Backbone:
């Protein structure tokens, strides 16, 4: 579905890579959610998909009208249901994901970032996912950026001087 660049975006990261079976099931559930997502009693122009077998991506075009609180609450309720059904954490905002030196997407806790930097597993050039993007334009330009250009850098206190 074609959404405007200003379409609102929500991204949730799983604490582990989902299996192919889980990904297929969750992908179908995400499509069904987007096809039935309402705001103010009207069907939203929206999209939902699973990226990298790890990220739940939701987007909705508000078309000049702010989304109602119930529509936003519906995302959280749906994500909590997925967490329970698939035994996966999706709402932990202390999770971050990055692309390791072999090109594989990995997770860590923000509190583990210093240790990974000290070991050299992550560097200032390591690509990290910015799940705080808020619209489609930001998603397309700022979702995957080097650590040195990310908000996660502030958690790299032990090695911050070397990264700047």
Residues:
């Amino acid at each position: 579905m074609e959404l405007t660049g200003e379409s609102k975006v929500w991204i949730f990261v799983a604490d582990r890579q989902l299996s192919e079976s889980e990904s297929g099931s969750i992908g179908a559930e995400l499509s069904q959610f987007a096809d039935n997502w309402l705001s103010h009693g009207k069907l939203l122009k929206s999209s939902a998909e699973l990226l990298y077998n790890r990220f739940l991506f939701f987007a909705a075009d508000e078309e000049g009208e702010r989304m109602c609180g119930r529509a936003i609450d519906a995302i959280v309720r749906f994500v909590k249901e997925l967490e329970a059904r698939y035994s996966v954490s999706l709402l932990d905002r202390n999770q971050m994901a990055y692309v390791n030196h072999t090109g594989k997407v990995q997770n860590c806790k923000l509190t583990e970032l210093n240790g990974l930097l000290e070991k050299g597993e992550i560097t200032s050039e390591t690509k990290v996912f910015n799940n705080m993007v808020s619209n489609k334009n930001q998603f397309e330009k700022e979702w995957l950026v080097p650590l040195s250009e990310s908000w996660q850098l502030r958690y790299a206190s032990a090695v911050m001087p070397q990264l700047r």
About this structure: The first helix runs from residue 20 to 35. Residues 115 and 148 are 16 Å apart (CA to CA). The chain has two domains: 8-86, 95-163.
